[in-house]
Known about the structure:
The chain contains 8 helices and 4 strands, in the order βαβααααααββα. By secondary structure, the chain is α+β, with helices and mostly antiparallel strands. The chain has one domain (2-110): Glutaredoxin, CATH 3.40.30.10.
Amino acid sequence: MITIYGxxxxxxxxxxxxxxxxHEIEYRFHDFKKAxxxxxxxxxxxxxxxxxxxLNRRGMMWRKLDDKVKINIDQDSARMIMLQTPSIIKxxxxxxxxxxxxxxxxxxxxxxxxx
Length: 115
């Protein structure tokens, strides 16, 4: 089963949901705002794709960070920020059990198994 992680009111999440629904691909949605983010899961993601890919440097949450934090960002500080504020993670994170797809990419989604 595919799990898609993020927040429901994000435009990119809405694109991903619409694409998955249009292609009748079943998924489970994990809402960061309601369910939070497990430390072990984040650590597994970091091990698989790296913290830099997960950290959304284009969003509002990044812009709200103090400039000193942004300049000195590293894996440990990024991990702490992502745990405290999961909405700073690039969305969506799609886990199909074999790979993580970070962000919405129609090309990469096309490679998902169809029902």
